[in-house]
Amino acid sequence: MNQQVHDRQIKNSSAVQAPRCQFCGTALNHTLVDLGMSPLCESFLNFEQLNRMEAFYPLHVRVCENCFLVQLEAYVSPEHIFTEYAYFSSYADTWLQHCKAYTDQVVERFQLNEKSQVVELASNDGYLLQYFVEKKIPVLGVEPATNIAKVAIAKGIPTINEFFGRECARKLVEQGKQADLIAANNVLAHIPDINDFVGGIKILLKPQGVATGEIQHLMRLMESNQFDTIYHEHFCYHTFSTLEKIFAAHGLTLFDVEELPTHGGSLRIYARHEDDTTKPISDRAIDLKNREQAAGFTSIERYTNFEEQVRETKRKLLDFLIKVKREGKTVVGYGAPGKGNTLLNYCGIRTDFLDYTVDRNPYKHGKFLPGTHIPIYPPDKIQETKPDYVLILPWNFQDEIMTQMSFIRDWGGQFVVPIPEVTVYS
């Protein structure tokens, strides 16, 4: 076979296999960033699994030139990822404070009471719905992870254990569970069929109801270099402009938006039925859409320079770790979040750089991080070993963590935050 024929076969093979946008079906021919191969970020290992083969999948993120939805291929089914899940929302105090404030706000704004119905999609361990229960407002959680749904039920939070979509929504409506408020916090990224999910919201929402969702803002992700928030559990990454198109395709209008500091920069969107004229489109929604357009997020060229920015961050982190390890310093991690596993696997950081990490979640204690095999201990381990540096992997909670772990300064320990670039705090 000559080289021309070989090259043509490769080109044709790539064209045939090009993934397509999960929203509009356009071929995904443009790369945002390729982070190589990585294991599922929540697939923590037991000691017995350390010598077994691990599954690694591509972390190749593409952008649709038609609707500008940024996305990963669904290499693994949601059932495989989320049926048994290691992330419990209730272990971050600042997140719980955020959720309580949201509850107070929406109850007052939309006049919710004991006759209302609140439904949360991907309700986790009841972290949010507990605050509606305190106000005597009827709630229902929809949570696909069996282990987490059991925790919520044990707390007294009514929860059904299944994946949400049109079929689930129809069943709930038949049972009289149509919602005055639907909450969907940090779940849209986890959906490999966004049309089914948003279509389900349309079915479940009462004619005058409101759906809210909190979504990491792609504009902030790229501006702040938050590439570690890319992992297989996140199938999509959103701008407000793209979300507006997706909801409109299902007869829903985004009438308001708030820009939040959570998770490095998130949006809280507010949706209503398109024929509900009681909720006009806010100035905030119009302004954000205009700012995204001015920043280039409706042009494919905006997405093409991100990869080199990510590579430089990797180089800087490795430079720092090589330097301090050559000086004989000890470095440990704080946290075992999904973003940490993306960062460590992409940068090739294992126990040669990071002795161990700690986490408040007992579910993770005694286990090992996927891919890197770094052991996970309770937070008390840091007091025992007195490391020189603590690398904060869940950097979105860095202020809370530095307050909780301030005692490391007693022996001269310092904190390291890797994103948007390596920063050391004494």
Automatic annotation (TrEMBL):
SUPFAM superfamilies: S-adenosyl-L-methionine-dependent methyltransferases
UniProt keyword terms in alphabetical order: Methyltransferase, Transferase
GO terms assigned for molecular function: methyltransferase activity
PANTHER family, per database record: BLL5978 PROTEIN (PTHR43861:SF5), TRANS-ACONITATE 2-METHYLTRANSFERASE-RELATED (PTHR43861)
BP term (GO), one: methylation
Protein name listed in UniProt: Methyltransferase domain-containing protein
Domain Methyltransferase putative zinc binding: 21-82
Organism the protein comes from: Floridaenema aerugineum BLCC-F46
Keyword DNA-binding set for record: no
Domain C-methyltransferase: 261-420
Endpoints of the signal sequence: none
